[in-house]
Specification:
Layout lengths: L1 H9 L2 H7 L19 H18 L3 H18 L6 H13 L10 H5 L10 H21 L3 H4 L4 H6 L7 H5 L2 H23 L1 H22 L4 H8 L8 H7 L26 H20 L11 H4 L14 E11 L4 E3 L9 H7 L3 H19 L4 E10 L5 E2 L39 H4 L15
Antiparallel strand pairs: 1-2, 1-3, 3-4
Helix pairs in contact: 1-3, 3-4, 4-5, 5-7, 7-11, 7-15, 11-12, 12-13
């Protein structure tokens, strides 16, 4: 997490995502806004320092809570920057606030009178294992779809690397695509059980390392592969770091003897019963939510990869290749004027790309344009959106109803009435016509005639 926050600072990502844009697509809480002035830079510096404090166990209880709050704040700021691994980092950071991880091999432990034989309870270990295992398992369950078995969008992704030296020709074979399709599915569904079994654990971990390194090379998904390579070691025996650091004199890897066998059950330090019940209860709630939440897309009609309803927080990874373009039409009926506003004035390219494929974000952008125009001109305008989207190489079609006036609906109106159903079939040949020419090949409804420039 320290590496992630530092990279955001030095790469200019903080400025690009949180300082320069005038519009932010917040997750859930619209009142959560970026700090003014240099606040966001200072916030990320604080995240670096807090992450290091947690890593070394310095003022752990305070810094772990501050890190969880600080990272969650950044996570909630910008929906267009959502990543599954950011969600996982939020969950892990909050779980670490209730796990007494600094009771051993920490600065706090060395500075206190904490006995060196302190033992964690089993639920601490299994709660962390659960969180690390969930993305693997649910990532596999999500792949049980017709598009994945057809090789979409995986096939299109690896085809983009066909010009690579040596590897390019290998990736162009259909056999390679099939190996990746079935290998990725089987890996996700079986890796957690293989990690749980002692005999297959080393092999499974080697598979994890290979899987995440290849993902890092092919998909450029930032910190996630390295986070998972390290975090997956939680499935090894809990004393493996001690044995690794101490060398072969510690004890055999398969020894059944508890490393703290000399400490009687009565003398083992444990949290008070009431506190233990509360902490176990909180961890249990987290487990239940994580088991149920990924299936909430069943509550909505349509393909979740198309509607985006239920996509987030569900570990749906590498399942949708979306190319989408959007244009807004603003109409002042009293003045008889219609124009298309420039979105780059308010959002950056990353926000625009993500917004154009998400009906809920298109709706939010349309409402902002209406409010911004009303504040500037004093006139109420109608807002319509033309969004054309290609999903997993399909021919592009309308994503939302371009005839519906966004400004005339309340914030809680049902998206199902606005999202156009996915009707284009999956094609064996991906759509390759440039986006600039899409409107020539797609049947469009009658759209407002643009007869004016945006008001200055």
């Amino acid at each position: 997490m320290a590496w992630w926050a530092w990279d955001y600072l030095v790469s200019g990502r903080v400025k690009y995502m949180y300082v320069e844009p005038k519009v932010h697509f917040s997750l859930f809480l619209e009142w959560v806004k970026p700090w003014p002035g240099p606040g966001m830079y200072l916030h990320f510096v604080a995240l670096v320092l807090l992450s290091l404090c947690v890593a070394f166990g310095l003022f752990y209880r305070i810094t772990s809570i501050a890190l969880a709050i600080g990272f969650s704040y950044v996570f909630l700021l910008e929906k267009s920057n959502y990543q599954n691994h950011y969600y996982l980092m939020v969950l892990v950071s909050w779980l670490m606030t209730i796990v007494p991880a600094a009771q051993s091999a920490s600065v706090d432990c060395n500075q206190s009178k904490q006995p060196s034989d302190f033992q964690l309870q089993q639920w601490n270990l299994w709660a962390i294992r659960f969180l690390i295992g969930v993305p693997y398992l649910y990532g596999g369950i999500a792949k049980l779809s017709s598009d994945w078995f057809a090789g979409c969008p995986l096939r299109q992704t690896i085809q983009s690397y066909k010009d690579w030296p040596l590897m390019g020709s290998l990736l162009s074979y259909e056999a390679t695509a099939q190996i990746l399709i079935w290998g990725g599915l089987l890996f996700d569904l079986t890796i957690v059980p293989l990690l749980m079994i002692r005999r297959t654990r080393l092999l499974a971990y080697a598979m994890c390392v290979g899987f995440h390194v290849s993902n890092s090379v092919l998909f450029h998904i930032h910190v996630f592969p390295w986070f998972m390579i390290v975090a997956t070691t939680i499935f090894f025996d809990p004393d493996w770091p001690r044995r690794w650091l101490a060398g072969p004199t510690w004890m055999p890897a398969d020894s059944p003897i508890d490393t703290n066998e000399t400490v009687s059950e009565r003398d083992k330090p444990t949290p008070p019963r009431a506190k233990r019940i509360v902490l176990v209860g909180l961890a249990s709630i987290l487990v239940v939510v994580q088991l149920v939440l990924p299936f909430r897309h069943w509550l909505y009609s349509g393909d979740v990869n198309w509607t985006e309803q239920g996509h987030m927080f569900s570990w749906r990874m590498m399942l949708r290749g979306k190319i989408s373009v959007v244009r807004f039409y603003l109409t002042d009926e009293r003045a008889g004027k219609t124009w298309t506003p420039s979105l780059r004035e308010f959002i950056n390219a990353d926000q625009l790309s993500r917004m154009a494929m998400d009906p809920a974000m298109i709706l939010e952008m349309g409402r902002f344009l209406e409010a911004q125009t009303r504040a500037k001109t004093g006139s109420t305008v109608q807002v319509r959106a033309l969004a054309l989207t290609s999903l997993n190489g399909r021919k592009p079609q309308m994503l939302v109803n371009p005839e519906m006036d966004i400004s005339s609906h309340s914030k809680d109106f049902t998206l199902d009435r606005w999202i156009a159903p996915l009707t284009e079939p999956l094609s064996t040949t991906p759509w390759q016509i440039p986006v600039e020419e899409w409107e020539k090949h797609v049947e469009l409804p009658k759209l407002p005639v643009v007869n004016s420039r945006p008001p200055s």
